[in-house]
Amino acid sequence: LQYVRGSDPVLKLLDDSGNIAEELSILKWNTDSVEEFLSEKLERV
């Protein structure tokens, strides 16, 4: 998680090597949408 003052919110998904695999603008997403998306995309450890 990184905060950059004045920038739009962006979600960066990394691959197993730590490289950016996908970058999504979440400017108009609400909290429920973010939680739902992450629960579908992330693996449970």
From TrEMBL:
GO-annotated molecular function: oxidoreductase activity
One Pfam family in the UniProt entry: Sep15_SelM
Keywords (A to Z) from UniProt: Endoplasmic reticulum, Selenocysteine, Signal
Xref: InterPro entries: Sep15/SelM_sf, Sep15_SelM, Sep15_SelM_dom, Thioredoxin-like_sf
Listed GO CC annotations: endoplasmic reticulum lumen
UniProt keyword Signal present: yes
Intracellular or extracellular location(s): Endoplasmic reticulum lumen
Gene3D superfamilies, sorted: Sep15/SelM thioredoxin-like domain, active-site redox motif (3.40.30.50)
Domain Selenoprotein F/M: residue ranges: 2-43
Transmembrane among keywords: no
PANTHER family: SELENOPROTEIN F
Annotated family: Belongs to the selenoprotein M/F family.
Name assigned to this protein: Selenoprotein F
